[in-house]
Amino acid sequence: MAGQGVKEARPEVSANSRMTVAAHALTWIGLYQRRGHEVATSEQIATSVNTNPVVIRRLLADLRKAGLAESRRGAGAGWMLSRDLAAITLLDVHDAIAAGPIFALHRSPPDPECVVGHGIGPAMTAVYDQIERTLRGELARTTLEDILRDVLKAV
Amino acid sequence: MAGQGVKEARPEVSANSRMTVAAHALTWIGLYQRRGHEVATSEQIATSVNTNPVVIRRLLADLRKAGLAESRRGAGAGWMLSRDLAAITLLDVHDAIAAGPIFALHRSPPDPECVVGHGIGPAMTAVYDQIERTLRGELARTTLEDILRDVLKAV
DNA sequence: CGTTGTTGTAACGTTTATGGTTACGACAAG
DNA sequence: CTTGTCGTAACCATAAACGTTACAACAACG
Protein backbone atom coordinates (compact mmCIF):
# COMPACT_ATOMS: atom_id res chain seq x y z
CA MET A 1 0.00 0.00 0.00
CA ALA A 2 0.96 3.55 -0.56
CA GLY A 3 0.64 5.38 2.71
CA GLN A 4 0.71 2.45 5.13
CA GLY A 5 -0.60 5.14 7.44
CA VAL A 6 -0.05 5.23 11.14
CA LYS A 7 -3.55 6.59 11.63
CA GLU A 8 -5.76 3.81 10.37
CA ALA A 9 -8.56 2.05 12.19
CA ARG A 10 -11.60 4.25 11.78
CA PRO A 11 -13.18 4.16 15.22
CA GLU A 12 -16.45 2.46 15.77
CA VAL A 13 -17.73 3.29 19.20
CA SER A 14 -20.78 5.54 19.05
CA ALA A 15 -24.04 3.81 19.97
CA ASN A 16 -26.53 5.22 22.39
CA SER A 17 -26.22 4.58 26.06
CA ARG A 18 -29.42 6.55 26.64
CA MET A 19 -31.48 3.38 26.54
CA THR A 20 -29.25 1.77 29.14
CA VAL A 21 -29.27 4.78 31.43
CA ALA A 22 -33.03 5.20 31.12
CA ALA A 23 -33.65 1.57 32.01
CA HIS A 24 -31.15 1.88 34.85
CA ALA A 25 -32.83 4.98 36.28
CA LEU A 26 -36.37 3.62 36.11
CA THR A 27 -35.35 0.28 37.57
CA TRP A 28 -33.53 2.06 40.37
CA ILE A 29 -36.59 4.15 41.21
CA GLY A 30 -38.80 1.08 41.10
CA LEU A 31 -36.62 -0.88 43.49
CA TYR A 32 -36.23 2.10 45.78
CA GLN A 33 -39.97 2.57 45.97
CA ARG A 34 -40.51 -1.11 46.71
CA ARG A 35 -38.23 -0.68 49.68
CA GLY A 36 -40.67 1.84 51.08
CA HIS A 37 -39.37 5.17 49.86
CA GLU A 38 -41.66 7.78 48.37
CA VAL A 39 -39.38 9.43 45.87
CA ALA A 40 -35.86 9.14 44.51
CA THR A 41 -33.67 12.17 43.83
CA SER A 42 -31.70 12.72 40.68
CA GLU A 43 -28.63 12.88 42.90
CA GLN A 44 -29.16 9.36 44.22
CA ILE A 45 -29.82 7.98 40.76
CA ALA A 46 -26.82 9.79 39.34
CA THR A 47 -24.62 8.18 41.98
CA SER A 48 -25.73 4.72 40.94
CA VAL A 49 -25.42 5.51 37.24
CA ASN A 50 -22.12 7.31 37.81
CA THR A 51 -22.96 10.51 36.00
CA ASN A 52 -24.15 14.04 36.64
CA PRO A 53 -27.59 14.66 38.20
CA VAL A 54 -28.49 17.02 35.37
CA VAL A 55 -28.06 14.23 32.86
CA ILE A 56 -30.54 12.18 34.87
CA ARG A 57 -33.01 15.04 35.17
CA ARG A 58 -32.89 15.67 31.43
CA LEU A 59 -33.46 12.01 30.67
CA LEU A 60 -36.25 11.64 33.23
CA ALA A 61 -37.89 14.74 31.79
CA ASP A 62 -38.23 12.84 28.50
CA LEU A 63 -39.61 9.82 30.31
CA ARG A 64 -42.09 12.03 32.12
CA LYS A 65 -43.32 13.45 28.82
CA ALA A 66 -44.04 9.89 27.78
CA GLY A 67 -45.96 9.22 30.96
CA LEU A 68 -43.50 6.79 32.48
CA ALA A 69 -42.33 8.88 35.43
CA GLU A 70 -43.46 11.80 37.55
CA SER A 71 -41.63 14.37 39.59
CA ARG A 72 -42.40 16.38 42.66
CA ARG A 73 -40.84 19.75 43.37
CA GLY A 74 -39.92 21.69 46.47
CA ALA A 75 -38.15 20.33 49.53
CA GLY A 76 -38.27 16.56 49.83
CA ALA A 77 -38.88 16.41 46.13
CA GLY A 78 -37.84 13.70 43.73
CA TRP A 79 -38.98 11.18 41.16
CA MET A 80 -41.38 8.27 41.12
CA LEU A 81 -42.78 5.85 38.58
CA SER A 82 -46.10 6.53 36.91
CA ARG A 83 -46.83 2.83 36.74
CA ASP A 84 -45.36 -0.42 37.89
CA LEU A 85 -42.15 -1.80 36.44
CA ALA A 86 -44.12 -4.72 35.05
CA ALA A 87 -46.18 -2.31 32.97
CA ILE A 88 -43.21 -0.62 31.32
CA THR A 89 -41.58 -2.31 28.34
CA LEU A 90 -38.27 -1.44 26.77
CA LEU A 91 -40.28 -0.31 23.76
CA ASP A 92 -42.00 2.27 25.96
CA VAL A 93 -38.58 3.48 27.04
CA HIS A 94 -37.28 3.44 23.49
CA ASP A 95 -40.13 5.60 22.25
CA ALA A 96 -39.89 7.86 25.27
CA ILE A 97 -36.30 8.81 24.58
CA ALA A 98 -37.16 9.43 20.94
CA ALA A 99 -34.45 7.12 19.67
CA GLY A 100 -33.96 7.67 15.98
CA PRO A 101 -33.93 4.98 13.32
CA ILE A 102 -31.02 2.56 13.10
CA PHE A 103 -30.30 3.28 9.46
CA ALA A 104 -30.77 6.37 7.36
CA LEU A 105 -31.02 7.13 3.67
CA HIS A 106 -28.61 9.42 1.83
CA ARG A 107 -27.66 12.74 3.38
CA SER A 108 -28.38 14.53 0.16
CA PRO A 109 -30.72 12.97 -2.39
CA PRO A 110 -29.04 10.75 -5.00
CA ASP A 111 -29.22 11.44 -8.72
CA PRO A 112 -32.88 11.00 -9.76
CA GLU A 113 -31.81 10.61 -13.40
CA CYS A 114 -30.00 7.40 -12.54
CA VAL A 115 -32.05 4.23 -12.27
CA VAL A 116 -30.29 3.17 -9.11
CA GLY A 117 -30.29 6.65 -7.63
CA HIS A 118 -33.97 6.86 -8.28
CA GLY A 119 -35.05 3.51 -6.92
CA ILE A 120 -32.60 2.77 -4.14
CA GLY A 121 -34.37 4.93 -1.57
CA PRO A 122 -37.69 3.08 -1.60
CA ALA A 123 -35.91 -0.27 -1.85
CA MET A 124 -33.82 0.34 1.24
CA THR A 125 -36.71 1.92 3.09
CA ALA A 126 -38.67 -1.30 2.70
CA VAL A 127 -35.86 -3.24 4.31
CA TYR A 128 -35.30 -0.70 7.06
CA ASP A 129 -38.97 -0.54 7.91
CA GLN A 130 -39.14 -4.28 8.31
CA ILE A 131 -36.10 -4.19 10.57
CA GLU A 132 -37.58 -1.43 12.70
CA ARG A 133 -40.75 -3.45 13.09
CA THR A 134 -38.76 -6.44 14.23
CA LEU A 135 -36.74 -4.31 16.62
CA ARG A 136 -39.88 -2.91 18.17
CA GLY A 137 -41.26 -6.39 18.57
CA GLU A 138 -38.16 -7.49 20.43
CA LEU A 139 -38.15 -4.44 22.69
CA ALA A 140 -41.82 -4.95 23.50
CA ARG A 141 -41.12 -8.43 24.81
CA THR A 142 -39.10 -7.27 27.80
CA THR A 143 -40.45 -5.28 30.75
CA LEU A 144 -38.47 -3.47 33.40
CA GLU A 145 -39.79 -6.08 35.80
CA ASP A 146 -37.89 -8.65 33.74
CA ILE A 147 -34.81 -6.48 33.93
CA LEU A 148 -35.10 -6.07 37.70
CA ARG A 149 -35.54 -9.81 38.13
CA ASP A 150 -32.39 -10.36 36.13
CA VAL A 151 -30.55 -7.75 38.16
CA LEU A 152 -31.54 -9.26 41.49
CA LYS A 153 -30.73 -12.75 40.29
CA ALA A 154 -27.16 -11.70 39.65
CA VAL A 155 -26.47 -10.77 43.26
CA MET B 1 -43.36 25.25 33.26
CA ALA B 2 -40.57 27.53 34.21
CA GLY B 3 -38.49 28.20 31.16
CA GLN B 4 -40.92 27.27 28.39
CA GLY B 5 -37.75 27.49 26.36
CA VAL B 6 -37.62 28.47 22.75
CA LYS B 7 -34.87 25.95 22.18
CA GLU B 8 -36.56 22.65 22.88
CA ALA B 9 -36.97 19.78 20.47
CA ARG B 10 -33.88 17.69 21.01
CA PRO B 11 -32.85 16.73 17.47
CA GLU B 12 -32.95 13.14 16.40
CA VAL B 13 -31.26 12.84 13.06
CA SER B 14 -28.02 10.88 13.31
CA ALA B 15 -28.30 7.34 11.99
CA ASN B 16 -25.86 5.84 9.56
CA SER B 17 -26.27 6.35 5.89
CA ARG B 18 -23.17 4.25 5.28
CA MET B 19 -25.27 1.13 4.84
CA THR B 20 -27.42 2.87 2.26
CA VAL B 21 -24.47 4.28 0.33
CA ALA B 22 -22.65 0.96 0.39
CA ALA B 23 -25.67 -0.88 -0.98
CA HIS B 24 -26.14 1.87 -3.54
CA ALA B 25 -22.54 1.68 -4.72
CA LEU B 26 -22.41 -2.09 -5.01
CA THR B 27 -25.76 -2.24 -6.77
CA TRP B 28 -24.63 0.44 -9.17
CA ILE B 29 -21.45 -1.46 -9.99
CA GLY B 30 -23.42 -4.67 -10.44
CA LEU B 31 -25.87 -3.12 -12.86
CA TYR B 32 -23.11 -1.34 -14.76
CA GLN B 33 -21.22 -4.59 -15.21
CA ARG B 34 -24.32 -6.39 -16.42
CA ARG B 35 -24.60 -3.76 -19.09
CA GLY B 36 -21.23 -4.86 -20.40
CA HIS B 37 -18.76 -2.57 -18.69
CA GLU B 38 -15.60 -3.87 -17.10
CA VAL B 39 -15.18 -1.45 -14.22
CA ALA B 40 -16.90 1.51 -12.63
CA THR B 41 -15.05 4.58 -11.41
CA SER B 42 -15.54 6.22 -8.06
CA GLU B 43 -16.43 9.36 -9.98
CA GLN B 44 -19.34 7.69 -11.72
CA ILE B 45 -20.62 6.13 -8.54
CA ALA B 46 -20.22 9.40 -6.66
CA THR B 47 -22.35 11.14 -9.28
CA SER B 48 -25.18 8.67 -8.76
CA VAL B 49 -24.86 8.82 -4.97
CA ASN B 50 -24.45 12.57 -5.07
CA THR B 51 -21.33 12.80 -2.98
CA ASN B 52 -17.57 13.14 -3.29
CA PRO B 53 -15.52 10.42 -5.03
CA VAL B 54 -13.24 10.17 -2.02
CA VAL B 55 -16.17 9.18 0.16
CA ILE B 56 -16.92 6.37 -2.27
CA ARG B 57 -13.31 5.25 -2.43
CA ARG B 58 -13.09 5.15 1.35
CA LEU B 59 -16.26 3.12 1.60
CA LEU B 60 -15.32 0.73 -1.19
CA ALA B 61 -11.95 0.24 0.46
CA ASP B 62 -13.80 -1.20 3.46
CA LEU B 63 -15.90 -3.39 1.20
CA ARG B 64 -12.76 -4.60 -0.52
CA LYS B 65 -11.24 -5.60 2.81
CA ALA B 66 -14.31 -7.73 3.36
CA GLY B 67 -13.90 -9.35 -0.04
CA LEU B 68 -17.00 -7.85 -1.63
CA ALA B 69 -15.32 -5.62 -4.20
CA GLU B 70 -12.04 -5.29 -6.05
CA SER B 71 -10.23 -2.39 -7.61
CA ARG B 72 -7.85 -1.97 -10.48
CA ARG B 73 -5.31 0.84 -10.65
CA GLY B 74 -3.66 2.78 -13.42
CA ALA B 75 -5.35 4.32 -16.43
CA GLY B 76 -8.74 2.80 -17.20
CA ALA B 77 -8.93 1.69 -13.61
CA GLY B 78 -12.02 1.33 -11.46
CA TRP B 79 -14.09 -0.99 -9.33
CA MET B 80 -15.81 -4.31 -9.84
CA LEU B 81 -17.67 -6.81 -7.72
CA SER B 82 -15.88 -9.82 -6.27
CA ARG B 83 -19.01 -11.91 -6.59
CA ASP B 84 -22.48 -11.64 -8.00
CA LEU B 85 -25.12 -9.40 -6.46
CA ALA B 86 -27.12 -12.49 -5.61
CA ALA B 87 -24.27 -13.72 -3.43
CA ILE B 88 -24.00 -10.57 -1.34
CA THR B 89 -26.42 -10.08 1.54
CA LEU B 90 -27.04 -6.90 3.47
CA LEU B 91 -25.45 -8.69 6.42
CA ASP B 92 -22.25 -9.01 4.41
CA VAL B 93 -22.38 -5.28 3.76
CA HIS B 94 -23.21 -4.53 7.38
CA ASP B 95 -20.21 -6.48 8.63
CA ALA B 96 -17.98 -5.01 5.94
CA ILE B 97 -18.56 -1.45 7.03
CA ALA B 98 -17.96 -2.45 10.64
CA ALA B 99 -21.21 -0.99 11.85
CA GLY B 100 -21.18 -0.78 15.61
CA PRO B 101 -23.86 -2.07 17.93
CA ILE B 102 -27.25 -0.36 18.09
CA PHE B 103 -27.17 0.14 21.83
CA ALA B 104 -24.31 0.63 24.26
CA LEU B 105 -23.82 0.26 27.97
CA HIS B 106 -22.82 3.11 30.27
CA ARG B 107 -20.00 5.42 29.23
CA SER B 108 -18.35 5.07 32.58
CA PRO B 109 -19.10 2.03 34.73
CA PRO B 110 -22.00 2.44 37.17
CA ASP B 111 -21.61 2.08 40.93
CA PRO B 112 -20.68 -1.56 41.61
CA GLU B 113 -21.77 -1.17 45.25
CA CYS B 114 -25.35 -0.61 44.13
CA VAL B 115 -27.42 -3.67 43.33
CA VAL B 116 -28.82 -2.10 40.20
CA GLY B 117 -25.51 -0.57 39.17
CA HIS B 118 -23.93 -3.97 39.56
CA GLY B 119 -26.46 -6.07 37.70
CA ILE B 120 -27.87 -3.77 35.03
CA GLY B 121 -24.97 -4.28 32.64
CA PRO B 122 -25.37 -8.02 32.16
CA ALA B 123 -29.15 -7.69 32.15
CA MET B 124 -29.17 -5.16 29.32
CA THR B 125 -26.45 -7.01 27.46
CA ALA B 126 -28.65 -10.08 27.30
CA VAL B 127 -31.41 -8.04 25.68
CA TYR B 128 -29.07 -6.22 23.32
CA ASP B 129 -27.42 -9.44 22.21
CA GLN B 130 -30.76 -10.96 21.34
CA ILE B 131 -31.67 -7.86 19.35
CA GLU B 132 -28.39 -7.94 17.45
CA ARG B 133 -28.98 -11.58 16.58
CA THR B 134 -32.42 -10.73 15.26
CA LEU B 135 -31.06 -7.79 13.30
CA ARG B 136 -28.43 -9.96 11.69
CA GLY B 137 -31.06 -12.51 10.76
CA GLU B 138 -33.13 -9.87 9.04
CA LEU B 139 -30.15 -8.43 7.15
CA ALA B 140 -29.12 -11.88 5.99
CA ARG B 141 -32.50 -12.39 4.35
CA THR B 142 -31.98 -9.75 1.69
CA THR B 143 -29.40 -9.87 -1.10
CA LEU B 144 -28.31 -7.04 -3.35
CA GLU B 145 -30.01 -8.96 -6.14
CA ASP B 146 -33.26 -8.45 -4.26
CA ILE B 147 -32.46 -4.76 -3.93
CA LEU B 148 -31.69 -4.42 -7.64
CA ARG B 149 -34.91 -6.19 -8.54
CA ASP B 150 -36.81 -3.75 -6.36
CA VAL B 151 -34.97 -0.82 -7.92
CA LEU B 152 -35.72 -1.90 -11.48
CA LYS B 153 -39.33 -2.63 -10.63
CA ALA B 154 -39.81 0.98 -9.60
CA VAL B 155 -38.95 2.40 -12.99
C1' DC C 1 -42.77 33.76 56.09
C1' DG C 2 -38.12 32.63 55.60
C1' DT C 3 -35.02 28.55 55.15
C1' DT C 4 -33.82 24.66 52.66
C1' DG C 5 -33.54 20.98 49.33
C1' DT C 6 -34.71 19.63 44.82
C1' DT C 7 -36.39 20.14 40.26
C1' DG C 8 -36.25 22.76 35.56
C1' DT C 9 -33.52 24.41 32.22
C1' DA C 10 -30.29 27.39 29.90
C1' DA C 11 -25.55 27.87 28.40
C1' DC C 12 -21.20 26.19 27.50
C1' DG C 13 -17.46 23.09 26.57
C1' DT C 14 -15.80 18.32 25.19
C1' DT C 15 -15.85 14.14 22.72
C1' DT C 16 -16.79 11.26 18.81
C1' DA C 17 -18.62 9.62 14.29
C1' DT C 18 -19.32 10.82 9.79
C1' DG C 19 -19.12 13.37 5.63
C1' DG C 20 -16.96 16.73 2.47
C1' DT C 21 -12.93 18.64 0.30
C1' DT C 22 -8.26 19.30 -1.29
C1' DA C 23 -3.90 17.52 -2.31
C1' DC C 24 -0.72 14.50 -3.98
C1' DG C 25 1.83 10.16 -4.48
C1' DA C 26 1.38 5.41 -6.66
C1' DC C 27 0.40 2.98 -10.50
C1' DA C 28 -0.64 0.97 -14.98
C1' DA C 29 -2.49 1.30 -19.81
C1' DG C 30 -1.47 3.18 -24.03
C1' DC D 1 6.00 9.73 -21.06
C1' DT D 2 1.33 11.07 -20.71
C1' DT D 3 -2.93 10.37 -18.70
C1' DG D 4 -6.56 8.74 -15.78
C1' DT D 5 -7.71 6.59 -11.55
C1' DC D 6 -6.93 4.68 -7.19
C1' DG D 7 -4.98 5.22 -2.15
C1' DT D 8 -4.69 7.97 1.55
C1' DA D 9 -3.49 11.64 4.47
C1' DA D 10 -4.93 16.02 6.34
C1' DC D 11 -8.07 19.19 7.54
C1' DC D 12 -12.62 21.35 8.26
C1' DA D 13 -17.70 21.08 9.16
C1' DT D 14 -21.68 19.11 11.26
C1' DA D 15 -24.27 16.85 14.67
C1' DA D 16 -25.41 14.00 18.80
C1' DA D 17 -24.68 13.03 23.34
C1' DC D 18 -22.48 13.79 27.67
C1' DG D 19 -20.61 16.62 31.43
C1' DT D 20 -20.61 20.75 34.11
C1' DT D 21 -21.91 25.16 36.16
C1' DA D 22 -25.32 28.35 37.29
C1' DC D 23 -29.50 29.91 38.80
C1' DA D 24 -34.58 30.54 38.91
C1' DA D 25 -38.85 28.15 40.45
C1' DC D 26 -41.00 25.85 43.84
C1' DA D 27 -42.95 23.58 47.88
C1' DA D 28 -42.38 21.45 52.52
C1' DC D 29 -41.47 22.63 57.06
C1' DG D 30 -40.24 24.97 60.99
TrEMBL record, chains A, B:
InterPro entries, sorted = Tscrpt_reg_Rrf2, WH-like_DNA-bd_sf, WH_DNA-bd_sf
Q: Give the coiled coil ranges.
A: none
GO CC field: cytosol
Q: Pfam families per the record? A: Rrf2
Origin: domain of life:
Bacteria
Molecular function GO labels: DNA-binding transcription factor activity
**Protein name stated in the entry:** Transcriptional regulator, BadM/Rrf2 family
Q: Which organism is it from?
A: Actinacidiphila rubida
